[in-house]
Specification:
Layout (H helix, E strand, L loop, with lengths): L3 E4 L5 H13 L10 E6 L5 E8 L2 E7 L8 H16 L5 E4 L4 H6 L3 E6 L3 E5 L4 H10 L7 E6 L6 H11 L4 E6 L9 H11 L6 E5 L18 H23 L1 E7 L5 H13 L6 E5 L3 E2 L2 E2 L2 H9 L3 H4 L5 H7 L5 H9 L7
Parallel strand pairs: 4-5, 8-9, 8-11, 9-10, 11-12
Antiparallel strand pairs: 1-2, 2-3, 3-4, 5-7, 6-7, 13-14
Length: 346
């Protein structure tokens, strides 16, 4: 049988309906984070297989039951890898069910971590994650080591308080900044503000998270049926990877900031508190720093910026962050925030 494969526009309602139906039959739902969708059509121009990309990740694969065993998934993966090559993405990642992990292993992908009964996270470099861990080992410090992970969108007095509190309790604090550029403040800006904001803490070692500390933007929610399952699956996969990172650095405790208004973060913290001790790693939740009786948050800062109330931001951020926000360098970021529809959960 002759097949053809091509990109599908999200506006192609007929093709998208077929893709959604095919995914649903295979126990998958279309992920909301996709920037390329392809369909492999049979000679009657019906969708026989599909796959998608988001950034350097491959996801949302399915093959029609009537066409399984014909090597169609191989064709879809090959097509998507060619698309990624054209984009300049040589380092690729994918999420798959445990039942299909071996198939992708045969295509040259290697397991990074898995959540039993749920999903497997893989990459196309044999030594990718192991090499990342070896690099981290070079930053290992003597004495008691702790870790902190933040997005800092942007870096606030709350983030600074969290870093100061954690740093005061250990000999070395390894601070991981989420590297993915999916925030209103670009990674380069967030890194600059974090670095400047913790410069007075000599025992803080800053790290880029790279592709291994998973952000909500890249996490595949399409295998999971409800919001609580998504949060739990995200947390368990993230923690499976973090445990390996902690072992490379000799980290024995992870600090997290309390999030009194977020159900998502609250559940994530509960899972972390239950799972990390099983690997010999403590989990300490630090209450939020407040300003005028309210917890300081990056979302509050973004809302004030969007409303044009920049002067009020001064009370919520370190001097270094405020200096950036009032500089010409920040103008494109501020304009972007003011044009954004929703800045609370961005």
């Amino acid at each position: 049988m002759a097949y053809s494969i091509s990109q599908v526009s999200p506006g192609d309602k007929r093709a998208m309906a077929e893709i959604d139906a095919l995914l649903e039959r295979e126990g998958v739902r279309r992920d909301r984070n996709l920037d390329y969708i392809c369909a492999l059509y049979d000679e009657d121009y019906r969708v026989a297989a599909t796959g998608s990309c988001f950034g350097p990740t491959l996801r949302c694969f399915a093959v029609s039951a009537g066409h399984q065993g014909e090597g169609l998934l191989n064709q879809v993966v090959t097509h998507l890898m060619e698309v990624q090559l054209e984009r300049g993405n040589l380092r690729l990642f994918l999420y798959t069910k445990e039942s299909t992990a071996k198939f992708f292993g045969d295509l040259g992908f290697y397991e990074i971590a898995r959540v039993s009964g749920s999903l497997v996270f893989m990459e196309n470099r044999r030594d990718g994650f192991a090499g990342y861990l070896r690099t981290l080992e070079l930053a290992r410090r003597s004495g008691r080591s702790a870790a902190l992970v933040m997005n800092a969108n942007p870096f606030t007095l709350g983030h600074q308080y969290l870093a100061e509190t954690a740093a005061a309790s250990c000999d070395a604090l390894h601070l991981f900044l989420v590297s993915e550029d999916a925030s209103l403040f670009p990674f380069a800006v967030r890194k600059k503000l974090v670095t400047e904001g913790v410069a007075h803490l000599p025992n803080v070692v800053c790290h880029d998270s790279g592709p291994y500390i998973i952000s909500s933007a890249t996490f595949p929610s399409y295998f999971l049926k409800d919001e609580a399952a998504v949060i739990e699956g995200h947390a368990r996969l993230d923690l499976a990877i973090f445990v390996r990172i902690a072992q490379a650095l000799g980290v024995t405790v992870r600090y997290v900031g309390e999030e009194p208004t977020s159900q998502v973060t609250g559940l994530y913290n509960q899972i972390m508190a239950a799972e990390l001790p099983k690997a010999g790693i403590g989990c300490t939740v630090i209450p939020r720093k407040e300003a005028e009786g309210a917890p300081i948050s990056a979302s509050a800062v973004r809302r004030l910026i969007r409303a044009g109330r920049l002067e009020e931001v001064r009370a919520l951020v370190p001097r270094t962050t405020y200096a950036y926000l009032t500089s010409p360098e920040a103008r494109p970021v501020i304009d972007r925030i003011r044009r954004a529809g929703d800045v609370t959960h961005y």
